[in-house]
Amino acid sequence: MTSATEVPSEPLASARRSCHCGELREANIGESVVLKGWLHRRRDLGGIIFIDLRDRTGLVQVRFNPGGDLPEDRYQAAHHLRSEYCLAIRGDVQKRPDGTENDKLDTGQVEVVVREFEVLSESKPLPFQVDEYDHTGEDIRLRYRFLDLRREEMQRNMLMRHKAYKATRDFLCGEGFLEFETPILTKATPEGARDFLVPSRLDPGKFYALPQSPQLFKQLLMISGYDRYFQIARCFRDEDLRANRQPEFTQIDVEMSFVTQDEVIDAMERLIAHIWKDCLGHELSLPVPRMTYADAMLKYGSDKPDLRFGCEIHDITKLFAKGCNFQVFNNLIKKGGVVRGFAFPGGGEKLSNTDLRPESKFSKRVTRETGIRAYAWFKVTEEGKLESNIAKFFEDDVLESLRNETGAQPGDVIFMVAHEHAKTCAEMTGRFRLLIGHTFELIDRDTFAFTWVVDFPAFEWNPEEKRWDVLHHPFTNIHDEDIPLLGTDRMSEVRSLAYDLALNGEELGGGSIRIHRQDVQSKVFSAIGISEEEAEEKFSFLLEALQYGAPPHGGLAFGFDRIVMLLTGEDSIRGVIPFPKTQTGLCPLTNAPGEAPPEQLKELGLKVTVKKKDPEGGSQV
Ligand code: ASP
Fold it and tell me: What's the rounded Cα separation, in Å, for the pair 365 and 576?
């Protein structure tokens, strides 16, 4: 900052900015400043004109006094300033008159009285007010993302994103990781989604795939001896977009050589703790707790459990072995099904017996959001008795055990869900638990409840395709003792060396110790039905590299956008990505994806045969 005598009186447009708008404080009173920024808001009070001038650092009040400070013609010109004009001003920092201070603003004790101003560029009338966020639909905000990004909230999010990049780099560089870039035009990388394909002009009829992750390259870098790799990597997955998914997104991608699962987990939780400390000043308590996959699925019905509230789920199947005449349970249990239940503390007051009827609004919502067709319930009376429309089907000691098993207290409601498939039952009950937690505000929103989920099964039976699928990717190592089970009828017992980090019901990331032996890799491919020819065609380079002294290695990737979303408290990753796509994969700003000109298609040897969508609703060829 320069003092009044030091500010040179060169043309304002080219004069150097002396400080940022959001930096001015009482200590600057009496200084002459040159500011550059956008007209955020203006109040023309007939005599004095006030504007809030905004830049990336915040706002400052700027005052145009009639007579005195400004030549008359310039004062008149100030009446024509409009929202989002880009301005340069030269003026003096003064204390705001008593009673007009604004304590909500960092610069609220001062104002800048203008001596000179210049319009650097005008703005058309705005499609939405940059300071009125709530009333503007997301489509229009994405269409004019360059304006949307001017909003304070978005600037805060982008700043947080920057801080998170920096914290990541600082930590990993400090721990001896080397930063790499890996190819974007490459071959398929199996992460469970479709590939985006890019046609090759030089080799017509051939395609590159965009990487679903840098998985294979980071493994090759370990084989090349780089020991510790990281990349803040862009990944591309062509999948039907679910909430909080984007076709392109960013990962913090890490790989380490000569490490055990514990060492990767230790380094990665310290990375997360560093990011949380740097970005939020939040001290995370380490080590982060760990939970087995089996426990997570049983107690929370999810492999990314939300631990911010209780309502822990219990398997109560065995309680109904005798003393239960409720045929719905009995029939399902006979077929090998299970019953899961949890207590909703204080639920008795929140849900009336009418709410609990199958046709009620509440029950319909449960079905819609969880897939549960019918649930059973008990209310615990003040005396500790269980009451329900189905109580008569259960003997007293069964009800007593049910209350003990679920830990239900007087005033609670016990919910129960039965299904013939244990995993389906677990997932549905888990969704029910979350619905209760969210609806009745049982969740402490100021908590960061992290947990590692470990000991995943390596494979999962795919009943539609009638084959085993990998739960992570096919390069995930398995426990040595389980290698002989590969390809046998005990595939479900094979345990992987994979680990995921969950936070507040979101998966922050996951990884594994990798297979570093070519013979094991080939066995895993064949166990999941990838033939030798297919493996050769898709991953020959990896299989080959594994034969040249591959070190044991492992790593992980965190979803960077999701991390920033959680750091900012946004509920969508679109809020923390500068230029995201819509839920349907479109970019309203650029209009991507677009059509390709015929000459370009010809060069690529491509012909488009699909029907184009007609915006009017019909279709045309
Ligand atoms: N490549 C994996 C993923 O993108 C992460 C890892 O295993 O390191 O999910």
Answer: 30
Question: Is 511 near ligand 1, meaning CB less than 6 Å away?
Answer: yes
Atom of ligand 1 nearest to the CA of 509: 9
Among the listed residues 85, 104, 84, 107, the one whose alpha carbon sits nearest the alpha carbon of residue 33 = 107
What's the alpha-carbon Rg for the chain, to the nearest Å?
Answer: 31
Predicted TM-score of the model (pTM): 0.91
Structure token digits, residue 315: 């398997």
Cβ of residue 557 lying under 6 Å from some atom of ligand 1: yes
Residue 255 CA: which ligand 1 atom is closest?
A: 8
Cα 160 to Cα 567: distance, rounded to the nearest angstrom = 8
Coil vs helix vs strand at 549 = coil
Q: Which whole-number Å values give the CA distances from 563 to 278, 507, 576, 577, in the listed order?
A: 13, 10, 10, 11
pLDDT, tens digit, for every residue of 182-207? 999 999 888 888 999 999 999 999 99
pLDDT (average), residues 48-56: 95
The residues facing 33 across adjacent strands are: 91
Q: Is the CB of 555 under 6 A from ligand 1?
A: yes
Alpha-carbon torsion, ordered 234, 239, 243, 244, to 10 deg:
-10
DSSP assignment of 488-546 equals STTGGGPBB-EEEEEETTEEEEEEEEBP--HHHHHHHHHHTT--HHHHHHHHHHHHHHT
In angstroms, the first-to-last Cα distance of the chain is 64
